[in-house]
Amino acid sequence: MSDELVFYTHPMSRGRIIRWMLEEVGQPYTTKVMAWGENRQPEFLAVNPMGKVPTIVHGDTVVTECGAICAYLADAFPQANLAPPPASRLRGPYYRWLFFGAGPIEQAVGLKAAGVEVDAEKRMMLGCGTMADVLDTIECGLTGRDYLVGDSFTAADLYLASHLGWGMQFGTLERRPVFEAYVARCGARPAAARANEIDDALMAKMQPQAEPAE
To answer: Which CATH class is domain 5-81+192-205?
Structure first.
């Protein structure tokens, strides 16, 4: 079975999260940049019927959704030390924060971007509650800590810091000192710098176009 690692992305999408993850993992990978429209062509829809990037193919395994890709890569390449050992109880908070990023954060940001105001009596129907609930929970989890899980950087930090950094940059998430310090700390990693350099160079080569992505 082939172990080739193929990364479908666009440099103005959430693919930037996975680029960083791939650079942290440090394994060879092939990048396939999807121009607008290519993600709706039959060739790519056969890989991901949602037509979304990022998507990775590792041998004959297809993984979509940023949180799932981060978790998969951390486990597929344990030598990168991006996840607690499988038997460790630190797996609990590790999974908690990965799913928090994919669930409440994404939902709260999506509702805000869509201009949806949820009535107070209906908020319990949502997994995210309010935006304030989400932000206060993150701040509580980060206060007095360098990282979310134990004493070291994990894929959960990469995923959460990406959400916070992107959200604060574009005004979809409130700036708070603990968030800014955390994003700066995680973003100072060499792999983050390499990933940004790669995607910024790709952006410079491409004409402005809509995002074909998550």
So the answer is: alpha beta
